Amino acid sequence: MMRRIALFLFLYLGILSAFESHGAAWSVEAKGGVKDMVLRQGHLIWGTDRGILQDYDLKQKQIVREYTLPKIKDFIGDLMPAKIAAVDWDEGRYLILSDSGQGGFSDLRIVEGNTTRWILKAEDRKPLVKARFIDKDHVLLGYLSDEAALLDLTSGKEVYRLQVDESKFSDFALNEDRTIAAFGGESGIVTLLETVTGKIVKRLSGVNKDNLYMVDIKGDYVAAAGQDRRAAWYDWKRGNQGFFPAKFFVYAAALSPRGKRAAYSMDEQSNLTLFDLESKEKIALLKGHSAIVNALIFADLHTLYSGGDDGKVLGWKINQ
Question: 180, 186, 212, 223: which is closest to 198 by C-alpha?
Fold first, then answer.
């Protein structure tokens, strides 16, 4: 009997040690809570709720560029930081989407060197949630009303604008070559569309039953973070789908290149849980954040970056 108990404990502890990991490989203190982050050519670029963009060079291990937005006025006229909603980088240009302080409408600008080019201002009346470069001349926009639009930077006009879903928009993500975007919102449905034409490719449903906080798309896989405590995954080309049950709202989701692994923030402690999508097994539990994780990015199969409301940007190395 004692031998059986000892064997059980050995196997149980062995399973735990196989996926538990404690602490990040490195940490950077951001200037404010991190609201969005991208990885571009060896640089992590993030925007904060204090209206500051920071560019961290992973090779040099230091901040190489910092840009602070002018303060905006709140509804009673007091000056406050312009919270950044989204950032991106393309060919030396930073894209910054931020709060204008006027009626929920957005400011969108491009910063290149010492030059700032305004793309949209409050008077354009655009209630935007997210923006990403598609190429040097086009930006994909996600409206609060769950509309997608492709903005031509040369003409300043939208190439198309379509209603993706009837619910409130939450997030979109681009695949590796930026040809497909995955849109998620309050309905729990993920809609895939062609970024250049706006043509809807596929709708993924039946897993999440409530609001999606974050989505990602890599290769044949889509991941979704749900308010219904489901860390969802879709093998969208083969038609397979499922979820990992969570004990708390799932705030963040990310996929590794080609979609072999998924990471989710799925407990009240803001830990990150990694899964192998082929075996559906848990790989690692990463502990380090103390507030909601808003940004989650795989650099490769063994490297992950995250940023959250605690003002931390963490880098993780997964040996498994």
Answer: 180
